[in-house]
UniProtKB/TrEMBL annotation:
It is an enzyme of class 4 (lyase). Keywords: Amino-acid biosynthesis, Aromatic amino acid biosynthesis, Lyase, Phenylalanine biosynthesis. Pfam families: PDT. GO terms for biological process: L-phenylalanine biosynthetic process. This is Prephenate dehydratase. Residues 189-265 form the ACT domain. Coiled coil: none annotated. Its EC number is 4.2.1.51. PROSITE patterns: ACT (PS51671), PREPHENATE_DEHYDR_2 (PS00858), PREPHENATE_DEHYDR_3 (PS51171). It comes from the Bacteria. Residues 2-176 form the Prephenate dehydratase domain. One of its GO terms (cellular component) is cytoplasm.
Length: 265
């Protein structure tokens, strides 16, 4: 099975890909878009995408990608514990580090450490945490934020530098075609917008309540072409094969607009 993800090796997405697809042929790509495009173009069987981080919240770009790609469905999930380290050339003093490279997600998750310990450093965003390593190879006064992994010639901070040590990212494995959805699931994920009427969100959530379904995630995203209107991304506990879940989904489909089943896992 060919699995695309944000690479190169050593990125958090590559670690999640190894957990979700331990025996795959791996296709590291430069962006989440490129990984998804591989699946849509049938060059890969699946892609691994982060959708939420406990410190930073939703990875909005990936929610939008999943919603906008009618053929894409999440079929498996993995919660990766994130252990961010500051990585720098062996022997360099922290006060000499002038630039810190990393993926925006990682930089935002370590904001406190970076401003308290490296106030002099300029932040440079890169395509991924692991990609910043190759950027740094040309620099002596630079550091990166990346996964806790030994790298020859480089030192790692002794501790996790994230604002909160317990830091998790929720990854989804996405495939092309509804036929890949598992027959049974523990959780179901959908997105939809509400009709523009009083109590619309309440009425949508009431459907879950009536069928006794426990919601595990809710996120709103503005509709790109319509200011003031929102798409809701909702995950709940449930077996996709259960009558109650099927009935709830069909009531949701009737009541909401632009309903899409995003996946089940
Ligand atoms: O840049 C990476 O390593 C990624 O896979 C994106 C990312 C960054 C920080 C936390 C989780 C995922």
């Amino acid at each position: 099975m060919k699995t695309a993800y944000l690479g190169p090796e050593g990125s958090y997405s590559s670690l999640a890909a190894r957990k979700l697809c331990p025996t795959a042929e791996y296709l590291p790509r430069k962006s989440f878009y490129a990984a998804v495009s591989c699946v849509l173009a049938c060059e890969a069987d699946c892609a691994v995408l982060p959708v939420e981080n406990t410190l930073q919240g939703a990875v909005a770009q990936n929610l939008d990608l999943l919603y906008a790609s009618a053929e894409l469905f999440a079929v498996k999930e993995y919660l990766l514990q994130i252990d961010h380290r500051l990585i720098f050339r062996r022997g360099v003093n922290l006060s000499r580090i002038e630039r810190v490279f990393s993926h925006e997600q990682a930089i935002l998750q370590c904001g406190k450490f970076l401003s308290e310990n490296l106030p002099q450093a300029k932040i440079v965003y890169t395509d991924s945490t692991a990609e910043s390593l190759s950027v740094m190879q040309k620099e002596t006064d630079a550091g990166i934020v990346g996964a806790h992994m030994a790298r020859e010639g480089y030192e790692l901070s002794a501790e996790n530098i994230a604002d909160e040590k317990k830091n998790f990212t929720h990854f989804l494995l996405v495939k092309r075609g509804e036929e890949h959805l598992p027959v049974h699931s523990g959780r179901v994920y959908f997105a939809a917008s509400c009709p523009h009427e009083p109590g619309a969100l309440l009425k949508m959530l009431q459907i879950l309540a009536v069928y006794d379904l426990n919601m595990t995630k809710i996120e709103s995203r503005p509709k790109k072409d319509s200011p003031g209107e929102y798409n809701f991304f909702i995950e709940f506990e449930g077996d996709i094969a259960a009558n109650g879940v099927r009935a709830a989904l069909s009531r949701l489909q009737e009541y909401t607009k632009n309903f899409k089943l995003l996946g089940c896992y």
